[in-house]
From TrEMBL:
It is an enzyme of class 7 (translocase). It comes from Methanoculleus chikugoensis. This is Cobalamin import ATP-binding protein BtuD. The keyword DNA repair does not apply. Required for corrinoid utilization. Probably part of the ABC transporter complex BtuCDF involved in cobalamin (vitamin B12) import. Probably responsible for energy coupling to the transport system. The gene is yusV_1. It comes from the Archaea. Pfam families: ABC_tran. It catalyses: an R-cob(III)alamin(out) + ATP + H2O = an R-cob(III)alamin(in) + ADP + phosphate + H(+). Keywords: ATP-binding, Nucleotide-binding, Transport. SUPFAM superfamilies: P-loop containing nucleoside triphosphate hydrolases.
Length: 264
């Protein structure tokens, strides 16, 4: 097994509130890995700690046998790309210029023909080359998400982190984005790590699912091994049936498990 990324004993806290607690995992090269769990379980925090957007209080993230903590920012950006849940920054730029931002870790004093060629290449891969001169702010949510993925691909990294990439999209665009991601992982030999809420989408597109609860990894493995009725009861507090369709587990929620009085 070729390990692309490892997390060793990771802890993170916001003030006195501990969000991640001794997280350990090894992620193989060339996989789609989904991180699932209830709100507040630490999914997005883990993604941000891997990319050093947040600095863990303890532990290490290792990519290609190199510690992330010892890397300069541009060196890290040549190894890991990050796609946020929403574009918090408003890009008053064309789509071409937004994607070109992904070339920054590779640029010298000025952009070169190779950088422009790479932008056109990834726009073509995602089928959005016709949007190149459109303003990013005038695009639909699905189009914006594809542009942000294109920007990450332009970085030419081995790992792409995605924080809830389908949360604000309709069903058509959810499927479109996930199909694109899975195809790119296979064709470009990438590792995609996705924080996601939708369990059935995770089951359909993931090689590995990591289920989190209370800042720890509760279960990890193949979708059919992680998405069990027992795990869903323990982590989400629901009774659910899990049925296989075309060898893919499908979660059918039935009802909540009553919580003890006083629990929130």
């Amino acid at each position: 097994m070729i390990v692309k990324l490892s997390v060793k004993g990771l802890h993170f806290s916001y003030g006195s509130a501990e969000i991640l607690r001794d997280v350990n995992l090894d992620i193989r090269d060339g996989q789609v890995v989904s991180i699932v769990g209830p709100n507040g379980s630490g999914k997005s925090t883990l993604i941000k700690c891997i990319d050093r957007i947040l600095n863990p209080s303890k532990g290490e993230v290792i990519v290609d046998r190199q510690k992330v903590s010892g890397m300069k920012q541009m060196e890290l950006a040549r190894m890991i790309a990050y796609v946020p849940q929403n574009s918090l920054r408003v890009f008053p730029n064309t789509v071409f210029d937004v994607v070109l931002m992904g070339r920054r870790p590779h640029l010298g004093w000025r952009e070169e023909a190779r950088d422009e060629q790479k932008v056109w290449e990834v726009l073509g891969l995602l089928g959005i080359e016709d949007l190149a001169l459109s303003l990013f702010t005038e695009l639909s949510g699905g189009q914006q998400q594809k542009v942000l993925i294109a920007r990450a691909l332009a970085q030419e990294t081995g790992v792409i982190l995605l924080d809830e990439p389908t949360s604000n999209l309709d069903v058509w665009h959810q499927i479109d984005v996930m199909e694109i991601l899975r195809t790119l992982v296979r064709s470009q030999d990438l590792t995609a790590i996705i924080a996601i809420h939708d369990l059935n989408t995770a089951a359909r597109y993931s090689d590995t699912i990591i289920m989190m609860k209370g800042g720890k990894i509760f279960a990890a493995g193949r979708p059919e091994d992680v998405l069990t009725s027992e795990n869903l009861a323990a982590v989400y507090g629901i009774h659910a049936r899990v049925r296989n369709y075309d060898d893919i587990p499908h979660v059918i929620p039935l009802k909540q498990i009553p919580r003890k009085r006083g629990r929130v």
